Amino acid sequence: MTTLRYITNKTAALIITPENRRYLTGFPSSLGYLLLTNGGNKLFVDGRYFEAAQKSAVDAEVVLMTNLVSQLNEELEKNGIGKLLIETKNEISVFQNLKTKLNVKVVPHQPLTDKLSLVRSVKKRTEIESIIEAQRISEKAFYDVLDFIKAGVTEKEIAAFLEYRMKLYGSQKAAFETIAVSGENSSMPHGVPTNKKVENGDFITMDFGSTINGYCSDMTRTVAVGFATDEMGQVYNTVLKAQQNVQNTIKAGLLCSDADKAARSVIETAGYGEYFCHSTGHGVGLEIHEAPTLSPKNNEVKLRAGQVVTNEPGIYLPKKFGVRIEDMLQVQKNGCKNLTKAPKDLIIL
Fold first, then answer.
1. 11-120, CATH topology level
2. Residue 25: which residues within 8 A CB-CB, separation 6 or more?
C-alpha cells in the first residue's frame, strides 16, 4: 500500500472516496471506509461486500461494519489517535457528521488528497494494461458504428449503439455518458444526444469510453456523413494538426501548460483560437477525469512518466459544426506512446 507520511503514531487517515479506497485495497465497493493507522489498516464494509472483500482486499483487515462511529472510535482510542485526516473531496455533510460524532479532531487534509491524486496519476503496468484493454473495446465499437451511421438515424440511436457494442465486447460499463452530436449540435463540446436525425453534410462528434477492472478509456472521433465542405475539411485538418503537435511534444518533465500550448498555438495560428474553449486534456484512470490537467492555467505542474493523459483539442463554430479528436497518451521519459489505434484521417461515410 502507498506510504503516506502524514500518518503518525498520533495521526490516522480515513479514506472514503470509492476510487481511493479501490486503489489502496484493490477492492471496489460503492460504500466503505478505509482506516489507515501505524497500527494497521482496516477496511469497513457492510454485509453486501464483506465476504467478497475478505477474499480480494489487500493490505487491510476487513471488518464488518455494524456501527461505524462506535467501531471507529474504538480503533482510534486503541491506537492512541488524536487527529483523523480525511480527503477534501468528500461532501461537507460527511465531514460534519464525522466531526460531530468521533472523539478525535477530524481534519480535511489537502496534502493527503493531493498525494493520493499524484500517486494514482502514475500508472503501474497492470493499470495501463486495463486502460488499453478498455480502449480496444471502444475501438471495436467505433468500427461497428461506422457501418451503422447513415442519414436518418438519430443521435440517441448512435449513442445507444456505441454503449451496447462496448458492453457486448466486455466493457463493465460506459466510462461516462456517451456524447453523439451532429450538425449544429456538434458545436457544443459536451452536447447531449437528442432525437435529431443525421443529415448528409453533417459532422458527427462521438466521445465515448469503456471500463475494464474499473479503469476507463476515453476517445473522440468526428466523422462526416455524405460529404464535407471545404470549411469542414479545413477545420478538421487544423484540429488534427494540433493534436499531432501535442503528441510530438509531450514527454516527462514538460509543463502541463506547455502541452496545452502545443495544441492551442496551432489552432490560434489558423485563426480559430476563440473557438477552442476547453483544456487540451486530462488524466485517465479509475476516474475519467484525473490529474494532471493539460490547461493554460496549470503552469507549475510537470508531466511524469507513467501518466496517461488525453489529447483532445477541438474547434467549435456556433450554429455550424464542431470537431474534436481525442487519443490517450502514455507519458514516457523522452516522449509518449499513443494508446489509441483508431484512424484519425477524416472519414466520410
1. Creatine Amidinohydrolase; Chain A, domain 1 (3.40.350)
2. 1, 34, 43, 53, 57, 58, 59, 60
* Concatenated DSSP letters of 249-275: H--TT-BHHHHHHHHHHHHHHTT-GGG
Reference 28, options 63, 52, 2; nearest CA is 52
Render pLDDT for 172-211 as a digit per residue (tens, 0 to 9). 999 999 999 999 999 999 999 999 999 999 999 999 999 9
Placement of cell 463554430 in the chain: 317
Q: Which amino acid is at 277?
A: C
Res 319 pLDDT > 70: yes
The domain locations on the chain are: 11-120, 125-338
Give the whole-angstrom CA distance, residue 347 versus residue 221: 9
| CA angle centred on 178, ends 172 and 183, rounded to 5° | 155
Residue in 38, 6, 4, 36 with CA at minimum distance from that of residue 21: 36
The dihedral sign for the CA sequence 285, 286, 291, 293: positive
pLDDT digits (tens, 9 = 90+) for 24-69: 999 999 999 999 999 999 999 999 999 999 999 999 999 999 999 9
DSSP E strands in the chain: the ranges are 11-15, 33-37, 40-45, 61-64, 83-86, 105-108, 179-182, 203-208, 211-212, 215-216, 219-224, 281-283, 290-294, 308-311, 314-317, 321-324, 327-332, 335-338
Give the DSSP H or E segment for 101.
helix 92-101
3-state secondary structure of 84: strand
| Yes or no: domain 125-338 corresponds to CATH 3.30.565.10 | no
Binned at pLDDT 50, 70 and 90, residue 2 comes out as: low
